[in-house]
Amino acid sequence: MIFGLFVITLSYGVSFLFPKEIRGSFFIVLSLHALIILFYAYSGVDLIGATEDADSFYKHAVERSSDIGNLNWSINSLSNGHDFFKNIHAILQHYFSGPEKIISYSTTLLAWSLCALILVKLYLSICQEDNKGAIVVTYIYALTPSILIFNSYLLREVWMSLIIFSIVYLALKVSSHSKKLLNISLIIFLTLICILLHRYMVVIIINLLAVILLYDAIDKYTWYPFNNIKLLSYLSVLLIGIFVVFNMELDSVKYIFRNGIIGSIDQYMIDLVGGHGDGAPPARTTYGKTFDKGNLFSIVNVFLSYQFMPYPWKVSSIIDLAPLFENFLRGGFVILFIINRKRLSITQKMNMDMIFLIWLSVEFIWSVGTINWGTAYRHHTVVYGLLVFVAIASYRNSKIK
After folding, report:
1. What are the phi and psi torsion angles at 295 (to 5°)?
2. C-alpha distances in Å from residue 226, one per residue of 99, 214, 231, 399
3. pLDDT (tens digit, 9 = 90+) per residue, 171-193?
4. Which of 123, 185, 183, 55 is nearest to 397 (CA)?
5. Are 150 and 40 in contact (CB under 8 A)?
6. Cα separation values, 136 from 120, 132, 366, Å
7. Which of 29, 141, 199, 235 is the most exposed, fewest CB within 10 Å of its CB?
């Protein structure tokens, strides 16, 4: 319990890293998240969604904590995307007098507080001195139902968010030539950690870095704006990185080699429709297999289903109203960004286009491996903060001008 309270106190200490005009807002939303986490940790009551995964992570961590000398740290084991997470929490439970839920759940609060901090810093680096806009981003991000729910469970999504937000922020710092070598080193370190958090995070990270490098190679934001030397250099670096990754003993890489890219998408969806491939029954919220490997345009239907299911006529439970509301909310943010994008300066437009493309491409990757809107509701949280940022930043910039 002492460790849990220490980490919660540390989370509140993050407020001092915010500009003083924003600290009060952050303190309010952090307190709400802290109350939810304390409720999860001590009440024994589970709220909607992902309770099985959260319980599984905690129970496995407790089981492993009794014999941490035999934790498996091999790449082959860690590449499944959940053993690394369980091993870390096993160590925490072992050394801080577990088993206690608050030991693990408190780390979720710390990760979320750092996510909010990075988003605010990202906002202020592009919309300088607009503290009111940063407050709006903080409130919208913090109070969105999916963030309140899933970023308070013992789940990996909040850590994925933190790493992706951090990489984006560091990339903007690199482009401004501020502590370039240090920031590049941190990006490499975070990349290596992130691929251990989910089996297919390696695909998302390669995509993320590709978008960042593509935009760094831009000289002028016009037709064919690229610096050819940079573009070829970055392409070479990515190809080398992909070659190294594809020669590692990663589960996801083996799956792709065995089935091919299109075949992997098709087979993965077939397994999910059949009950997640583990014998469990299909979820109530399953919208079915929407990908047809004989028709590549079906990928559009996959993405739209991921973004907008449940459609209003598919709602069959009061619980479905939360994802339905957020589907409209995300659609509204996309429209808000597109409408106000033209009023941005060239530098702002480049930076926000890059971040929007990262959101769009990461969402697209998640969509090809998701066939029910319950899981989609949870996966949307990983890069949701980036969408909130570009929407509010473009709107506020327009209003200020």
Report:
1. -140, 100
2. 55, 8, 7, 31
3. 988 866 667 778 788 888 888 88
4. 123
5. no
6. 10, 6, 27
7. 235
